[in-house]
Amino acid sequence: LCRLLTLLLLLWRLLWQHRHQLPQLSHRTWVASARHIAANRDPLQHYAALEQAIASGWILSTAEVRALIGVKPSGDRFKRGAFAFIRADKVGNQAGWKVEKI
């Protein structure tokens, strides 16, 4: 289950990075897909994905963070549960967020 979530997150990142090559899919489609995945998952899956993001040093987009935790991060440092999201860079036209465990 953890591997599946990791693969889905990796696929999401790859598709997001190459979205300009897929003009038939809009940003709304990406966000709707992420919300659908989030709504139909094990309630603890997002912890595994966040742990993987920490271990891999990934910078997640605002949409990815929102899909994982259900809330849009704001400010320069956003805390949610046992995780902190630090604004780090840009991912496309969105803010990028580095994940840390508190």
Q: How would you characterize the overall build of this protein?
A:
Helix 1 packs across helix 3 (45-56). It is built from four helices and four strands, in the order αααβαβββ. By secondary structure, the chain is α+β, with helices and mostly antiparallel strands. It starts with a helix and ends with a strand. The protein is 48% helix and 24% strand. The protein has a four-stranded antiparallel sheet with strand order 1-4-3-2. The mean pLDDT is 80.
**Portion of residues in helices?**
40-55%
Cα radius of gyration in angstroms: 13 Å
| Main β sheet profile | 4 strands, antiparallel
End-to-end separation: 24 Å
What is the beta-strand fraction? 15-25%
List keywords for this structure.
four-stranded antiparallel beta sheet, single chain, alpha+beta, 4 strands, globular, 48% helix, 102 residues
Summarize the structure.
This protein is of the alpha+beta class. The protein contains four helices and four strands.
